[in-house]
Amino acid sequence: MRPSAVRLLNILVPIKRAVDYAVKIRVNPEQTGIDLNVKHSMNPFDEIAVEEAVRIRERLKDAVKSIKVVTIGPPKSAETLRTALAMGADSAVHVEILESAPAPEPLGVAKALKALIERQKEGVDVVIMGKQAIDDDAGQTGQMLAGLMGWSQATFASKVEVDPEQKIANITREIDGGLEELRCKLPVIITTDLRQVHLLNEPRYASLPNIMKAKKKPVEKLTAAELGVDLTPRLETIKVTEPLKRVGGGKVANVDELLTKLKEAGVTGKRA
């Protein structure tokens, strides 16, 4: 029996709608960014975060009270929320921005998440999110949120174990030299990794019955103004261009021929 004094866990999972990982990225004609008129889906790192939140509930049974997902994006981002709800989340929050609005930067997202957490009457014990989004590859939001909240943080998680009675989370994370184990006090910010060597999990496919059930789950709509947050980017993208196309190489028979080719190409060097 679980002591009645033990607080039931509330998990928040921020997710992002991004260009699908299988799409070949192209620069738009105006060279202001990439062409967004392509297939979009849930950011793969965030998909792993949703799956892990559901698995934490499956492992802890009735110790988890709720799993809430949140996204900041245009109206079409509602589809991404429904996918997360079909995977097993209980409710969702959509901080809606205009379709034409620039994508918010990590600091703006972190401030919006902080404001949202502070609005939750039941509180938040665990925030689990992807370590980065595959569109901007910033990898900063989780760390910034932990700094703003003053909470424990564990990044690049490859294994997560939560003990609601002790109010701690044991996280195994990847570092350059191998694996590192951290013990964090709740509340905690966890970011999930996607490497195949120590993959945290394999996200489930949403079944048709769960997709139908997801349509009835509550989705709260908010604006940045209601959260008291300014999502205006601080950085300006001047121009976006595609990398230069590679020119085919050639073979040389010896060093003298190589030096001749380099001189013809205008490559010169000085002896050390």
Please describe the topology of this protein.
Elements: E1 9-15, E2 17-19, E3 40-42, H1 44-60, E4 64-73, H2 78-87, E5 91-96, H3 106-119, E6 126-130, H4 141-149, E7 152-163, E8 168-175, E9 178-185, E10 188-192, H5 208-214, E11 219-222, H6 224-227, H7 255-264
Parallel strand pairs: 1-4, 1-6, 4-5, 5-11, 6-10, 7-10
Antiparallel strand pairs: 2-3, 7-8, 8-9
Order of helices and strands: EEEHEHEHEHEEEEHEHH
Strand line-up across the major sheet: 9-8-7-10-6-1-4-5-11
Helix content: 25-40%
User: Biggest sheet, in brief?
Assistant: 9 strands, mixed
Question: Could you tell me the strand content as a percent range?
Answer: 25-35%
Number of domains: 1
Structural class: alpha/beta
Our measurement of the CA-to-CA distance between the termini, rounded to an integer number of angstroms, reads 75 Å
Shape, please? globular
Number of helices: 7
Overall pLDDT level: 89
**Count of beta strands:** 11
- Looking at how many chains there are and whether they match, the oligomeric state comes to single chain
| Model regions low in confidence, pLDDT < 50 over at least 5 residues | none
CATH top level class name: Alpha Beta
CATH topology, by name, is Rossmann fold
Cα Rg:
23 Å
CATH superfamily: HUPs
CATH architecture annotation: 3-Layer(aba) Sandwich
Cofactor: FAD; AMP
Subunit structure: Heterodimer of an alpha and a beta subunit.
GO biological process, one term: amino acid catabolic process
Family: Belongs to the ETF beta-subunit/FixA family.
